[in-house]
Amino acid sequence: MKLFNSLFGKFHKGVGIELSPQRVNLVQLRKLRQGLKVETLTSVSVPEGVFVNGQIIDSPTMAQLIQQALAESQIQASHVATAVPGRESIIRIISVPAELDDKELREIVLNHEAGLHLPYPREEADLDYQKLGCFIDEDGIEKVQILLVATRKEITDTYIDIFEQAGLQIDVLEINSFALIRTIRERLRQFGPQEAAVLVDIEFDSTEIAIAVNGVPQFSRTVPIGTYQMQTALSKAMNLPVSRDLELLYEMSIPPTFIDGGVDEINPDMTVMMEVLGELTEELHRSIDFYLNQNENLEVAQIMLAGLGGGLRQLDEFFTQRLNLPTSQIDPVAALSLQIDEEKYSLVERSGLAIVLGLGMREAE
Q1: Which CB contacts under 8 angstroms, 24+ apart, belong to 94-97?
Q2: Residues 283, 292: Cα–Cα separation, whole Å
């Protein structure tokens, strides 16, 4: 029998495994009196063809890669936390009467409200929810805000099956943005209730945009532009073979003052790649405008960059100038005061660890 516990459940083993088109990341964290310690942090390359359009289509290979990561990390684990991409999830904030008891609340949320917010039939979804807090609506009625999260059962089943093939059980299956928020929650606490943080998770073949207020994701969108598209453009401009290895991209610095339609006199090969970054900037601008138009009382306090591409040199300056909004790069290692092998994970690469570290942090909750 396949088990699906919870998107919000407790997890105390401290082993998080992130599956992505470029790498399988595994971390084991241990809780100390003063914060957290990294017991092990391992990354295994994912070959081409395992993921297609953001979905895992080769489950046996993925299961083998998980086993390889476990073997390299030299840990014994039976239960883990993992996450699905934002594109595979539905996140909604809904309101229901505060007078409902727990049983009534569950019935209303999962069997009535959920059906109103899902783009597919209720029976095809795995759902979970969490209370956020109470408020008085415009009619003077006390209500409770609910964070509703859903994934398609077929996606859930795929992940459960992969980990079962690897000899593991998923204790918690959550959404990438939730793990990212957990990693940087101390930084998010500096923002007020009317200030939104825009989380830009630049992954291998896509970018997940999540807008969070009070540490809760209010809006999410996936754009099909990632580090692979940037690297491909750069490689072709330099007449180099296209590679899944991002070393070429990590060696570059993004010119913050690049002019559209112009040629970078210092490095002409950057021109094509900058066009890709320009497209990403436009998509980010559209997402922010759409959200703010629905929420007039909010303002964007900061854009925060994470993921494989979040740490590209001077990318924060590029977005700051292009969008006229303060932008920072997330260093999850510094954010959590962790110590890791700096030779294995350079400063540029660290932002790609934000999700897996958030998964491992389940132990600390």
Answers
A1: 94/145, 94/146, 94/148, 95/135, 95/137, 95/143, 95/144, 95/145, 95/146, 96/143, 96/144, 96/146, 97/141, 97/142, 97/143, 97/144
A2: 14
pTM: 0.90
Q: What angle do CA 92, 95, 101 make, to 5 degrees?
A: 120
pLDDT at residue 267 greater than cutoff 90: no
> Is pLDDT of 238 > 90?
no
